[in-house]
């Protein structure tokens, strides 16, 4: 609540007109500089409170989204792990009929490790490119 001058000359308590420039202009028009500053300070407080409420609402939405994303990412990664494990076991069984069980048990993990090494190499390259871009932008 801010004090706005009444046309009759007495000050009354009335809410500041938040977001209505015409009402704000009418409230300031004819008032003393101190009253105008008080009205402006009230508007600033109201705008800051509104922005804080908006930030809190956005934070709640982002928090809920992060929770959902985390849960579904964990489900996807566990499912992917089971699928790769099943594939590896199947490959060992299928390859064992051709090469023997011990050689198949060496070939399948070696191929999986090569795939992991290629992926790590690609990730490292992408990380270096991102680091270089950030370095260029920060200079």
Describe the structure.
The chain has 139 residues and is mainly α. The protein has 2 domains: 1-83, no CATH class; 100-139. The protein has helices at residues 21-28, 33-99, 101-138, and strands spanning 2-5, 11-14. A two-stranded antiparallel sheet has the order 1-2. Helix 2 packs antiparallel against helix 3.
Radius of gyration based on Cα positions: 33 Å
* Average pLDDT figure: 83
Q: What's the arrangement of strands in the largest beta sheet?
A: 1-2
Major sheet size, sense and barrel closure = 2 strands, antiparallel
Label the structural class: mainly alpha
Q: List the helices and strands in order.
A: EEHHH
Number of domains: 2
Choose one word for the global shape: elongated
In terms of DSSP E residues, the strand content is 5-15%
Unreliable residue stretches: 1-17
Tally of individual helices: 3
Write down how many β-strands occur, each being a DSSP E stretch of 2 or more residues. Answer: 2
Q: In which range does the helix fraction lie?
A: over 70%
């Amino acid at each position: 609540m801010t004090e706005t001058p009444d046309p009759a000359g007495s000050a009354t308590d009335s809410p500041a007109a938040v977001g209505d420039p015409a009402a704000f202009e009418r409230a300031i028009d004819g008032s003393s500089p101190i009253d105008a500053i008080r009205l402006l300070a009230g508007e600033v407080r109201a705008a800051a409170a509104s922005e804080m409420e908006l930030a809190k609402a956005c934070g709640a939405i982002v928090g809920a989204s992060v929770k959902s994303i985390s849960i579904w990412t964990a489900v996807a990664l566990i499912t992917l792990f089971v699928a790769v494990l099943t594939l590896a076991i199947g490959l060992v069984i299928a390859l064992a009929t051709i090469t023997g069980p011990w050689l198949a048990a060496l070939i399948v993990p070696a191929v999986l490790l090569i795939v992991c090494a290629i992926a790590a190499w690609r990730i490292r390259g992408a990380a270096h490119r991102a680091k270089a871009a950030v370095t260029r932008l920060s200079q």
